[in-house]
Specification:
six-stranded antiparallel β-sheet; Phosphorylase Kinase, domain 1; Transferase(Phosphotransferase), domain 1; 11 helices; 570 residues; alpha+beta
Length: 570
């Protein structure tokens, strides 16, 4: 300010108008400088107010019924925290439930939330809850994501008790594989809590809030892979023990006793699977735990997924059947229906047995008896003669071997089916464009992994896309021509319209529907498991699991399917 004032005075002194003019100009310059100082001060105060507002932004004043983009109608606020709010909403255009995160456009984390949402949407992995829209509009930033009405939070599952071994195995297997895929694309979660994990009605685990939940809360990490790996270990620990593996209570779970430290899950509760207990400690080893049996700690989701895959597979428990109650005759069957009860002290009444009818005593009755007896004797004689004739004929047909075989009546016994090795699998792309999902997951021997289609909108026949007019599916290659006697296929979701076809014995590299001329099953909606045993084995090298229509994905207007595991027997 002093420099501006001096400059103004110098200009006035050199104007050549005399002392009075110079004094007037100097006064004017001083006034201008003072006004400039006041303006600068006001700007500084406004800047301070803006910075103060950025540090504590009030959430937008929205209410139930408010519409975003004339499409998303807010229904219920489920979270309001740190200047943002999360809502359950309805997409009126597609008539489906969605979730919406809202925050002011001038929120200090608005830019990072938009960037995280758009990066997550590009991943397109169905194991994550999908981001559907990320928009800045009317001084608001909002992120729209899937809403799964048929899914249950892991928080709610654990509130009912710990998970059994097979379910815990599925949890850590699916979550570690999904997060390994996300980190390969440079995406981290950083807030992988029980509330971020959902279990669908089909038994699949899905993760919500990839990158977005951390951006909303301003969470960062210098080692994102390590952070997410420890979070998966904490989820597995909680699933096995129904305890949070830290001293503080969290997510509706009690923490560990203070001063004890992190102890293995199988020391917290009896009957826990030893391998899963050690796996949880290996994932949490970075947080102070000690890896069991000198196994190295798992520092990334990919290492954890490989450790899970190396474990012996944990099968689901056998279903338990309750024996029916012992049969007891009713009072009506016991002959007391409608009878008055005995008076106290009166002798018990003896049951009255009905008098059997008398034998046939008339002449007609005797003739009838002898006629029936004669017919029985004749029938027995005829049967004996036919049986003897059969044995004699069989003895003559045996030739010179001298061996006589008896007929058991059950026919020839079929040999037990033998699993055929699948050497390769490829996506079925009849129109030159296939679904390049994880095809090897359909033949890796694990039902927890799957080849999964993208999510299609509006039409069950793969979105009615021209490139999908003949559907899609998987072609399995047996390596050589084999006798195929049966199939056992685990579908990713029930309700898919599917058929199984086989190529001719001399086919080479079949790619179109016309190349698969042998039908093994009819085209019809399938349950979660498709099993069939052929009446006569079919010789082929290539088998096509052909999917033509997909079931709904849990929300109106969206469809998705896939194949979890394919087994062929010969």
């Amino acid at each position: 300010m002093a420099e501006r004032s001096t400059a103004a005075v110098d200009v006035a002194d050199n104007s050549g108008d005399g002392p009075l003019t110079a004094k007037a100009d100097k006064a004017t310059a001083d006034g201008v400088a003072q006004a400039q100082d006041t303006a600068d001060e006001n700007m500084r105060e406004a800047d301070d107010e803006r910075k103060s507002a950025e540090t504590s932004v009030a959430p937008p004043e929205l209410h139930s019924g408010h519409k975003l983009a004339r499409r998303y109608r807010l229904e219920e606020c489920v979270t309001r925290l740190d200047g943002f709010s999360s809502w359950r909403a309805v997409d009126e255009k597609l008539r489906r439930a969605v979730g919406v995160h809202l925050l002011p456009a001038d929120h200090p984390r608005a830019r990072s939330v938009l960037a995280a949402a758009r990066s997550s949407a590009l991943l397109g992995d169905p194991r994550f809850v999908q981001v559907l829209d990320a928009v800045e509009e009317n001084d608001l930033v909002y992120v729209v994501h899937e809403w799964l009405p048929d899914a249950t939070e892991l928080t709610a599952l654990l509130a009912a008790g710990p998970l059994e071994a097979h379910e815990s195995y599925q949890l850590v297997s699916q979550i570690s594989q999904a997060m390994a895929a996300a980190h390969r694309e440079g995406l981290a979660h950083l807030r992988l809590t029980p509330g971020a994990v959902l279990r669908t009605s089909s038994g699949q685990y899905r993760i919500r809030g990839l990158a977005v939940n951390a951006a909303l809360r301003g969470i960062t990490s210098e080692g994102p892979q390590r952070t997410d790996t420890e979070a998966i270990g904490a989820l597995l620990y909680a699933a096995l023990t129904q305890r949070w593996p830290y001293e503080s209570d969290a997510y509706g779970l009690s923490g560990l006793p203070k001063g004890v430290g992190l102890i293995a899950p199988d020391q917290v509760r009896a009957g826990i699977h030893r391998g899963l207990s050690e796996l949880a400690m290996r994932a949490l080893a970075n947080d102070g735990a000690t890896a069991s049996r000198q196994e190295p700690p798992c520092t990334t989701p990919d290492e954890l997924a490989k450790a899970v895959a190396a474990m012996p597979r944990i099968r689901p428990p056998e279903p338990t059947f309750t024996a029916p109650p012992e049969y007891q005759r009713t009072t009506y069957q016991q002959g007391t229906y409608g009878r008055p009860g005995a008076h106290p002290g009166a002798p018990a009444a003896q049951p009255v047995l009905p008098t059997p009818p008398g034998p046939l005593q008339s002449r007609t009755g005797k003739v009838l008896k002898w006629g029936v007896a004669a017919l029985l004797i004749a029938a027995l004689g005829l049967g004996s003669w036919q049986l003897a004739d059969r044995f004699l004929d069989r003895g003559n047909d045996s030739g010179d071997t001298g061996n006589t075989q008896t007929d058991s009546g059950d026919g020839p016994q079929k040999p037990d089916p033998e699993p055929l090795k699948i050497s390769d699998a490829a996506v079925f792309a009849p129109n030159g464009s296939g679904i390049d999902a994880d095809v090897p997951s359909a033949i890796d021997g694990k039902t927890g992994t799957a080849w999964i289609t993208p999510q299609y909108r509006g039409y069950a026949n793969f979105g009615n896309l021209p490139t999908r007019k003949d559907g899609s599916g998987i072609i399995v290659d047996l390596g050589s021509v084999r006798d195929v006697a049966g199939l056992d296929i685990d579908m990713y979701r029930s309700g898919q319209t599917v058929e199984v076809l086989a190529a001719d014995e001399d086919a080479s590299g079949p790619s179109g529907l016309s190349d698969f001329s042998q039908r093994l099953t009819d085209l019809e909606p399938a349950e979660s498991k498709l099993e069939t045993t052929l009446d006569k084995p079919v010789r082929t090298r290539y088998v096509l699991i052909h999917v033509t229509a997909l079931p709904t994905d849990g929300s109106s207007g969206t469809f998705r399917g896939g194949i979890s595991e394919i087994r062929v027997t010969g």
